[in-house]
Amino acid sequence: MKQYGQLIYEYFKTNFIDDKNGGIYSAVVGNEVVTEDKLLLNTSLALLTAVTYEDLETAVKQYEDLNLFLSEKNRCEVLESSSVSVDIGKVISLQTELITTLSLLSYGTFISDTQILLTAKEYFQKVSNKALENNFASIISVDGDILLSDQRALNIILGVYISNEMQLSFLNRKYLDRFQQFKSVDGGLWSFLDSSNRPLRNKGKLLIDNACTLLLNSAIVDTNETMNFIDKNYKHPEGGYWNKIDKNNKVSVDNTTSYYTFNSSPFPYKSMLDHAILVYALSKKNRNSIVYKRSLSELLRYYDLKNSGVFLGGGNWFSTPVTPTVPLARLVMVPPHTVGAFSVGNTSYLPLHEKNATVQLVSSLALKGINKIEIDYPTKIKEVSFSPLDTSLKYISSGQLTNSHIDIEKYKLWLEKTKSGFGYGLTPYQSPLGFKSDRSPPNFSAMHVISDKSVLYEEIPDKDNIFLTMKAAQNKDGGFGEQAGVVSELFTTYCVVATSFILKNKNYNIKKCLDFVKSCQNDDGGFGNAPGYPSDIWHTNFGVLILHLLNSEANFPEKLIQYLVSAQNEDGGFAVFPNLSSEVFSTFRAIDSLRLLDIEIPNKERVISWLQSMQDVNEGGFHISENKPISFVGSYHAIAALYLLDTLPINIEKIKIWFGNHQAKDGGFSKLLHHPSDTTDEGFISLHASYMLEQKINPYWIAIIT
Question: CA dist 641 to 90, 618, 697, Å?
Answer without folding.
Answer: 55, 21, 14
